[in-house]
User: Fold this.
Amino acid sequence: MTQWRRKGADEVYPADEVEARLKAELPQWYLEDGWIRRKYKTSGWKATLMVVNTVGHLAEAAWHHPDLSVSYAFVTVKLMNHAAKGITEKDFALARKIEEVLMWQPGKDEPAVLEGTPDDPRFKYLKYD
Assistant:
């Protein structure tokens, strides 16, 4: 049951509504210091770079630019609408798309034609939730 009114693309949500929406729609994301954030754990540098490139592609295509913190085995994504100076519908939309693409696993939602990476440490990619 939604307790908030959807706002226009550039209307800023108050913190309590941001937290409620994150809990309901994006439970791995959290609000901190005016940004919505998510830390993606990876298996190492190669996977980290793939995450960075994927987020970069989605953000550029959406014309919405996150801040990223990049380390050997994780990427932290931070979203805030810079022009609006707060969290807007654009942030939620991009967070959902990032989550959908990065957390997709072959065989989970469709026939297992695409088998996914082998269960072998040499081929690990993301640490899925």
The chain is about 35% helix and 15% strand.
